[in-house]
Amino acid sequence: MGVRRGRIRAARSTNRECPAMLCSGNARNWLILAICLVGSVLIVPGALRAQAESPGDGERAAVQGLAEKEGIHLVFDIQTDDVLRESPEATADSELRDDVVRRTIAVLRRRLEAINTPTFWIDRSGESGVRVVFSPGVRDPNGIKDLLGGTGAFTFHLIDERVASGDLDSGQVPPGTVVMPAARSDAHMPARYAVRAKIEMSSDDIREVEVRVVGGQPVVSFRFSPDGASRFATLTADNIGRALAMVLDGAVISAPIIREPILGGAGIISGGFTEREARDLAVVLRSGSLPAPLVLREERSVDPSGDAAGSQ
């Protein structure tokens, strides 16, 4: 603005006192042109800043035409019905659904960034869906699909030792106990567990996670928040000799026996993991669980010409 006022004052001074040649039509034209150029410099950047700062403009530009973008496409339906039914708040279904979709996209984005996916795009698809697109040539697309598709609900439950193996096989368990499968087929693990339904701890209580190698096997170590550490110490002190199930998406990945109170607020999850499985579990714990389950609706590849191949 200072430059602009300086030019205007100089022009007025010239009109009163300058020689006739400076007041000619050419001089006035040059003056008008100079003022217009200064105005352009001042106005255009402001307009561009306003456009860039509009909510969502940058992200929308990045995903424009996402359905036709070259790469591997995964479209998930978000199972929002249970969330809508269980919500105690008197909020419009559309607002709750929008919130679930936003949180789902945020969790999926954190998971993809955690495994250093080189190039990806993610955006809403329809009313309650999400589309993820990877650049062509991405490594291990099936592994990425598995990582994204899991809800990531990680919880701790006590095992119900009252249930006999025969009752477990027939599903006859007392109230407050549920039958959960083992996460993997292993000669050292039962195929099913009688698990107390009460959630003792969850991933919400965990603050630090890392993959380590113990005895030549990948494991996932974790550390609780201060409040979580205190509750975990009480839980383990009160249940010495009992098994504590670690459950991911409704399947038991490990059920160690509590030998002594665990007072340090840290623990290790071991379950015969491969390196990728341990990495994926760590990513899920760091990224948080999805607000609702996902169901893969569409998987296809789009080539540079825009032609698609795949399954729906």
Keywords:
single chain, 312 residues, alpha+beta, Alpha-Beta Plaits, Gyrase A, domain 2, 3 domains, four-stranded antiparallel β-sheet, 9 helices, 39% helix, 25% strand, transport, SecDF_P1_head, Preprotein translocase subunit SecD, transmembrane helix
Helix-residue proportion: 25-40%
| Coarse morphology | globular
Mean pLDDT, rounded to whole units? Answer: 79
CATH architecture of the largest domain: 2-Layer Sandwich
Give the percentage of residues in beta strands: 25-35%
Which CATH class of the largest domain?
Answer: Alpha Beta
Could you state the order of secondary-structure elements as H and E? HHHEHHEEHEHEEEEEHEEEHEE
Low-confidence stretches: 1-63
Organism: Rhodospira trueperi
Protein name: Preprotein translocase subunit SecD
Pfam family, one: SecDF_P1_head
Domain Protein translocase subunit SecDF P1: 102-160
